[in-house]
Amino acid sequence: MFEPGEYDDEFHFLDSQIDAFASELSGFISVHRWISSDGRLRNSIYFFKDMGSVQALSKFPQHLVAKGEVKRWYKGYQILITEVTATYGDGNLQYP
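Structure (tokenized):
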């Protein structure tokens, strides 16, 4: 989850490269984006089949550059890495 600050061309360039790399990983399932009702907070939730894909994304050179510059573009952020052990529902909604 993050609170956006001011984005520039470098942010958009890195963001598109990171997103493309993530979606090409063999363990990639999907990405879901969310914006709070007041527009202040955003979230990008990436789903992967395995931790190897998560680790590959974390070591991607453009991701390392972006992490080093995060204070330029975000007012604040929190990363949460979780493992899904079960899902359930009524069958009318497929997620992810």
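The longest strand covers residues 28-35. The CA atoms of residues 5 and 73 lie 5 Å apart.
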